[in-house]
Fold this sequence. Notes:
- Two copies of one chain form a homodimer.
- Chain A has 15 helices and two strands.
- By secondary structure, chain A is an all-alpha fold.
- Chain A has a single domain (3-326), classed as Farnesyl Diphosphate Synthase.
- The first copy, chain A, starts with 7 loop residues before the first helix and ends with a helix.
- Chains A and B meet through helix 3, helix 5, helix 6 and helix 7 of A and helix 3, helix 5, helix 6 and helix 7 of B.
Amino acid sequence: MNRSAVPPPVTMVLDAAEAWLPARMEAVEERLRRLVEAHGELLAADAGSTLAAGGKRLRPMLVLLSAGPGAGQAAIRAATAIELVHMASLVHDDVLDAAPLRRGRPTVVARSGRERALAVGDLLFSRAFAELGQDGSRGQVELLSGASVALALGELAQRRDAFDVSISGQRYLERCGLKTARLFECACLIARAGEDGGSSVGPGGERPLEPGLTVFGREIGLAFQLLDDVLDVTGPPERTGKARGTDLLDGTVTLPLILARDRDGSLAELELRGLDDGSAEAICDRIAATGVLEEVRAGARRRVELAKRALGRSPLDAKQRQLLELVADGVVERYS
Amino acid sequence: MNRSAVPPPVTMVLDAAEAWLPARMEAVEERLRRLVEAHGELLAADAGSTLAAGGKRLRPMLVLLSAGPGAGQAAIRAATAIELVHMASLVHDDVLDAAPLRRGRPTVVARSGRERALAVGDLLFSRAFAELGQDGSRGQVELLSGASVALALGELAQRRDAFDVSISGQRYLERCGLKTARLFECACLIARAGEDGGSSVGPGGERPLEPGLTVFGREIGLAFQLLDDVLDVTGPPERTGKARGTDLLDGTVTLPLILARDRDGSLAELELRGLDDGSAEAICDRIAATGVLEEVRAGARRRVELAKRALGRSPLDAKQRQLLELVADGVVERYS
């Protein structure tokens, strides 16, 4: 992993973890690179630039940290699998949104068209499960497939709610739970779901056996999404890599608008269909003017605190907890 | 399973297998129905009609037959998983082709739009692996993810080759191997990949341990695809559920055209871009006039014979082999 390319909070965690974490993060990068090469020109041409564009690799880091320094190759494979599912979902999201840029680089759909992008997403997705097929456990397959089902349901919910300015905050949070938090949760649990068939999920799938890590993953996932949605309103584009108001243009109603419409009645009457870039930015300004953004940020900070407290109930040792707390802080700091 | 809705060869196999096979096929249908209901209105609205439209359920039947009458619940889950991957790939294919009809009913993309269809495909796909997470083995996850990777690579290959009238027969067969035969192969092997961590694939994934069943699945998969490609040329639409020349309109060059262009030089000069329905049908007639269709059908029949001979090298008992031979014959008979 090229450290100069990763954001400061991640670097901070890498430094605090001594040598084992950066070495394993590099092993995950290496596996991702090899996967692209293994499928030859077909995948390399389309997915290579997406892979190379990097990203925060927050999810694999959560896998490796919750696995701890004593974990073996299976943790690296699980971390790779989680990142592949995340990448697959980004590639498919970009197909749906016809997004031109992701992390400042052309998306697969912009580069290669909808057809190839759809297949590339399917391929990355399949490869994720192939990673678990090598030395994963049944519990890991259950966790990752459950998170993937949630991702797709979240996507369906987002399409169902699209352009509906009246959706409730509750519904918004359910959607964030499905689209974002479940994969974070999965990242925190998967390495501990056993390398030999053990599962951290109860036999009926009804109750996670590690509630501390489950809450930790879920809450930082929600905080991450809340802050992402604030950034869509505030920009600046040169930092987020996309235009302000992109969510509005896609018809995606997020918490800032939901809270703002109660303070500025005219926002409740918005027609989001047919917006252009300029009017989307103007709506962003009106949302910001209501002062709700600080409220959303404060909610995200509360979730991060809740996440850190939940770690006390996890079976992790003090050093692992300390590093996961740094990751949690990093989720907030990236955006402050 | 409503027998009146399934094609005659499948009914023949169901009759020959006595009570256990129809009971298990019905159990697979029941699991598929429950999955759709379990995800509530979101999935039911979009995928319900696709599920209800049925299909031949050839792949689950292969799973159940190769598992044999003594197999348990795990074989039903594996059969369900294979059909879910197949359904997911159909839903995504229809997105790419913007297909209005599948099996005579509106496709998900036609009914609900590209966005929801993409997410529905992702969901069905994830649910497939969730089935294996419940009581599948590592070997099963490896087989199914390998087949899913192949499907996506086949899709990418098809897009790469699109509108290229000069592609070789070899390249066409490679594509069929990826897009169709690998999942048939997987269906024949998956139930025997152990319920407790055993794998029918060698430790390095290099050699299948059941070459007889591997060849059987592969060859009937290829035969199935060859005959499907003949049907696209011959129709009739009221039997295939789609217009003649649909492949040509999508730019998909298949074996009938590849062989025909060597007999009718003018076909080698075709420009497939911008074809309309009428000219696609006219090309179908010119392909048929060269006499290559009987050649392709004969090739498919040879593959079915090869498949049946390979069964002799499998570890299955005489009754299982007899039923699988009926399925193999059914692949040809459906189209004769």
